[in-house]
Every structure is written in C-alpha cells, then in structure tokens.
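Suppose you are handed a protein chain with no further information: no name, no annotation, nothing but its sequence. What can you learn? This example shows the usual starting point.
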Amino acid sequence: MIEFPYDDSYSPPAPVCQVSFSVARTGQSVGPLAAILDTGADGTLVPQRCLDAIGARRVMETGLRSQWGERRIVYLYLVTLHLGEIELPGTYVVGDEQSDEIVLGRNVLNHLKIWLDGPENISRLSRG
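A reasonable first move is to predict its three-dimensional structure. Written in structure tokens, the prediction is:
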C-alpha cells in the first residue's frame, strides 16, 4: 500500500499521488509528478509536454466533453503508468495541451484499491 498526503494548495485539500509515465519504445520516462485522483473523470489527462518529453506517439483521435459540456477533439497515447511499485502497462491517456495538471480518471483508478481519508488528509493506494 502506498500513502500520499492530500495537496493543501487546493481548497478543500485534494487527494493526490505521485505518478511517472514511460514508453517502452523510447525507454524514456517522466516523473514522479503530482496527479489528482478524480473518480468523476472517465479518463486520465496528462500535459502534452510530458508526453512529448518521453516520445509518446498518438494512438487515436477521440472526443472529450468537459464537466461544463465543452466538447473538443483530443488524442490518446499509450503509456506505462507507474505509481511507486505499481505498474500499469498499456494505459491510454489524453494528451492535454490546455493544462499542466495530471488527472487520474477511472480508466486508471478502477485498477486500484483506493482509500480516501479526508479527516486525516491522506490517500492510500494498492493494486486492485
């Protein structure tokens, strides 16, 4: 089990973890970087600059709808996601050109056991 403190720079404090991304083809990786745990997000968003840094290739084009109903075309990338000792190969992520924030959505969170302890401001993760 991996334990992470909540990020107090958000109001209220937000559950976060440290993640890294890699691509087997290039052998490149980036991270660890802070990522928000978002059980309401369908997919995982990663800043485009991070994906460019590791030489991740576009796999497919799809549409994305924000919580405000905004729709836009985005590109999916196939990476290996690392959370400490937990490795999730073959993870599709959205390359986000509009934000520097990493958002872990349900496509990743559904592979994990997650315990959000709001009163203690701690999140705990383990492999599902």
